[in-house]
Description:
Layout: H1 2-32, H2 34-44, H3 54-74, H4 79-96, H5 103-132, H6 137-161, H7 187-192, H8 194-228, H9 230-242, H10 249-280, H11 286-310, H12 316-337, H13 341-355, H14 358-367, H15 374-401, H16 407-430, H17 435-496, H18 502-514, H19 526-538
Helix pairs in contact: 1-5, 1-6, 1-8, 2-8, 3-5, 3-15, 4-5, 4-8, 5-15, 6-8, 6-11, 6-14, 10-11, 10-14, 10-15, 10-16, 11-13, 12-13, 12-14, 12-16, 18-19
Amino acid sequence: GGGRCGGAGAALRWGITGALCAAFLGLGMSIAVLGPTFPNLAANVGKNVSDIYYIFVGRSLGYLGGSVVGGVLFDCMNASLLLALSMVATMVGLYGIPWCKDSLLLTVLMSVIGGSMGILDTGGNVLALNTWGAEAGPHMQALHFSFAVGAFVAPILAKMALGGSESKELPVVEETNQSVLKSVPTASAASATPALQDHLEEDFLWSYVVIGTYLLLVSLVFFVLYSKGSSAQDKSKTSLQKSKFAKYHCALIGLLFLFFLFYVGAEVTYGSYVFTYAMVFAEMKESEAAALNSVFWGAFATCRGVAIFGAAFLYPGTMITLSLTASAISSSALAFFAHYRTSLWVGTAVYGASMATVFPSGISWIEQYTVVEGKSASLFVIGAALGEMCIPAVVGYLQGRFHHVPVVMYTAFVSSVMTVVLFPVMYKLATAPLENDLKEVMDCETQKALLSNSRLTEDEEDEDDEEDVREWNEADFEVIEMNDKLKNSLIDTSHKIPGGSPAQVSLQPHLDNISGDSPVVAGGSPGRQNGNVDWDKSD
C-alpha cells in the first residue's frame, strides 16, 4: 500500500511538471505573438503603429498587477485552480483581440492578458518549488525552456497564418537614417485597401485563436489536477510552515529583486536592439543582422534546454557562478571589441547562452536558504517585469540622444557588473547562521566539552585505581617475602634450641600471629604474656 501511494504521489508530481511546462509554452507564445502581428493590430483599429505603442505599456502594467495579485492569491487558494483560471482569462483576451476595433478596448484586453500572464508566471514558479523542493532545479529549467520554445514558435505560427498575405506589397512609411524600421501599414493605407485589410484580419485572427484554444486545453488539465491534487497542495503548505526563514530574509528578497531587474532588463535590451546595432554600427546587411539576432536567441534557447540536464548534476549556485562569469567576459568583449566581426558574433552567442539559466537557477538557489512564498515570488516577477519595461526604454532614449555611442553594449556590460557584485552579497547574507543555529552549535560544543572532561576524569580515576592495585600487589609481595624469611629464620632457631624449652613454646604463638593463623587462647593465660616478653628479649 505504501508503494502504491508513493507511486501515485510521484505520478502526480510529474503530472504537475508536465502541465506547468505546457502552460509556460503557451505563456511564451502569448507574449511573442504580439511582435509579428503588431502591424495588423494597428491596421485593425485604424491607427498607425507609432500611435498604439501604449498597448505595450498596458500589457506591462497588467503583468505587474497580475504578479502582485497572484502572489497574494497563491497564499490563500489552491495553486492549480488559480493557474487554471488565469489561463481561462488569457484565452478570453486572445479570443477578443482579433475582433477588437477600438484602440482603448485593445489596451484593456492587453492589460487583462498581461495580468493573467503575471499570475501564471508567479504561481507556476512557486508551484514547481513547492512540488519538488530541493529537487526543483531541473524542473525549473524545463519550465523556462518551455517558455523559450513558445517564444520561438509564436512568430512561426504567425508567419504561417500571414504567409499568403506577405507576398502582397503594402504601402510603407518612409525610412530615416536614425532608425532601421521595417515597413508597416499605416491607417490611411489600411483604409485605402479594405479588401486587403479584411484578408489580413482573417489571417492573423487564426494565430490568436490557436494559442487561445491551446491555453483552454491546458487549463482543463489544471482543473483535473485541482480535483485530484488538493492533498498535495496541503502537504506543500505544511512543508513551507516547517521550513525556516533566513536571518536576512527581507534583504535577500530585495537584493534578488534588483538582481532580476538588471538581468532581465539586459536580456530583453540586447535581444531587442542587437538587430539595430548590427545595421547601424556594424554596417551589416539586413539578413546578417537578422542572423545575429537569431544567434542570440538560438543560443539562449539551446542553453536552457541543456540546463535541464545540467541542473541534475550542478548546484544552482554553481550554475549562477558559471553564467555570471561567462556574461561578464562576453559583455566585456561586446562593449570594447565589438568592432571586430568575430568578437561580435562569438560574444553574442556566449552572451545569449550565459543569460539562459540565471532566472530559473536564481529561484532554485534562494529556495535553498529561505522560504519562497507567493509574495516573494511575485517580487521576483515584478523585478523582472520592471527591468523588461524600464531598461529598454532608457536605452532607447539614450541611443536617440547619443547616436554614435553603442549604448546597448555598454548597458550589457554595466548590467553584468551589477549582477556580479550583487550575487556574492546575497550569498553572504543567505549563509549567515540563525540565532537558533548558533545556540544549537554552542550547546553541541558545550556537550562535547562536558563529555571530553568526563572521559578525562574517568581515565584519571582508572589510572589511580590501577596505581593503587599495583601498589597493593607490590606490598603483598613484600609481606610474603618477609614472612618467608621469618619462617626460615625461625625454623633455623628452633633447630638450635632443645625441644620442650619455654622459648619454643613462647615463639610459636607469635609466629602463628605473624603468618595470620593466631591460635585461640582461653582466658588470656600468663604464659602468652611471658612468651612475648621472652621474644622481645631474644630480639
